[in-house]
Amino acid sequence: MMSTADTAVVLGREACALDLDAVAGVLRRRSVLVAGAGGRIGSTLCRTLAQIGVRRIAGFDSDEHALVDLLGSLAPKARTQFREFLCTVRDRARLATVVAQHQPDLIVHAAALKNLRFCERHAAECVLTNLVGVRNVAEAAAHGGGALMVYVSSDKAAAPTSFVGACMRLAELHLSWRDQCAVRDGGALRIASVRLGNVFGSRGSVVGAFRRQIDAGGPVTLTDSAMRRHFMTAEEAVGVILMAAASEKAAGGAYILDTGRPVFIRDIAARMVALSGKDIAIIVAPSGDSEKLEEDLYDEHERVTHSGVNGVLRLQSQSRRPVTTADIDALEALARAGDDAAVRTQVFALLNACLGAACQTMPPRPAAPDHKFAERAPADSHDAQP
């Protein structure tokens, strides 16, 4: 595990500090269900929720080893009740039963398939987890009487070109439609999305790949020397999730942490090599994956405003049409038939119907408000533009 100081060096900025007191008063004594509790984000979230003293946590995951690790990492003297559930978000009936029994005030959905190459090759499996799973969680939350659902998305959902990004954007649009329906029909459940950048230490992250290559003596491989990404720590990611969960105005949009200018992947690699003290080469080896040179935080189909919390932006999608339950049901039928090609075609056809042509640029950031989320590094601490 990389130290806080080393993370700041590699990141090129100081991490935003989470003010637990700001959210503890709202979330303390609440009941929370975390889907994907065994992952990097889910496990960090569970530990943070236990720290602030929520009444009860239900940890939902399909990876038994991850759940065992999570149980071992929770403080033995924590007052928060924790119960694990070994299940997948694809299991509609089981999920509905767990939510009905647990009756959470807050549901955080952090379960997803994220590997670009595998999700392109196994499109049907990606849809069953990343779209059908989202529908299942939202449906269970609505029937279970929950007050708020927070969906953990990715910056790949902005101007999406990969299959993972396309599915996540459709999931955001589906949840936005559900939230609008709840407002119209007087439903109790409100829904918000949180869009995260690349999270340090998460499974499959480039940082982990670089560390393994450095430990093996190199070389460190880059897909493209011009590639840049938005990076954040797991603690920063949890901070945005909790901000959305604690805000009275959180529902009905997507939220992102404005991490400033994206960081060159080559600089991340160079800093990690320098910290290792080893003489290791850095080479370029194109992968052929559908990756953009630079991920956007948002695109031209979204209206961007400040959330009222410094460093956090709020997005409202300007979709041509909603993504309804019928749309997800149709994709599920294709996915269960195992037709990966048909699934890919239909996903991008639906995305095109919602957003039109692919987005190319980001609109300018709005001026920051006076409200404070955390102390941030000055702008010149970020990598310079090329």
Q: How would you briefly describe this protein structure?
A:
By secondary structure, this protein is of the alpha/beta class. It has 13 helices and 15 strands. The protein has a single domain, classed as NAD(P)-binding Rossmann-like Domain (Rossmann fold), CATH 3.40.50.720.
Descriptive notes:
It is built from 13 helices and 15 strands. It has a single domain (24-202, 230-260, 293-381), classed as Rossmann fold (3-Layer(aba) Sandwich). With 386 residues, the protein is of the alpha/beta class. Helix 9 runs parallel beside helix 11 and helix 12 runs antiparallel to helix 13 (340-355). The strands form four sheets. A nine-stranded mixed beta sheet has the order 3-2-1-4-5-6-11-15-14, with helices on both faces. It has a two-stranded parallel sheet with strand order 7-10.
